[in-house]
Amino acid sequence: MIIPKDKSATLNATVRKVACGAAEVMPLVAVTNLARTLEKLQQRGLWVVGTAGEAEQELYDQDLSGPTVLVMGAEGKGMRRLTREHCDFLVRLPMAGSVSSLNVSVATGVCLFEAQRQRRRGRPAS
After folding, report:
1. 29, β-bridge pairs
2. pLDDT tens-digit map of 9-51
């Protein structure tokens, strides 16, 4: 997991407890410049997929079966402009009824589940 050094939550005792053990096995890297880091990951062959409520493509139509970086924006504000510009694709999670968005932890879980589902199948749903 890659997070910005500034303006992001720290891995404190509360976060570790809520993570239910995942914080002990998931590497966490804080970087000074997230946009530059995304650029370097792209140069190494990873696709950068950002989540945005206004994106035209749905998560389930995006190929997540290969080396992929998922970018989750801040709750309320979403991604910063420069971070968004470094995404190869933008996807949205389909919402139903009057629910317009999910909190970032739930949205991340949905995205990770879909990536894992596709990797087991070897391709996206459509």
Report:
1. 2
2. 666 666 666 666 666 777 778 889 999 999 999 999 999 999 9
HSE of 68, CA atoms in CB hemisphere, 13 A? 22
CB 38, CB 48: distance < 8 Å? yes
Pair 104, 73: CB distance under 8 Å:
yes
111 CB burial (10 A radius; 0-12, 13-18, 19+) = buried
Strands (E), 14-67: 29-31, 47-51, 57-58
pTM over 0.90: no
What burial letters (b/e) apply to 20-43, b meaning 16+ CB within 10 Å? Answer: eeeeeeeeeeeeeebbebbeebee
56-87 pLDDT, tens per residue? 999 999 999 999 999 998 777 788 899 999 99
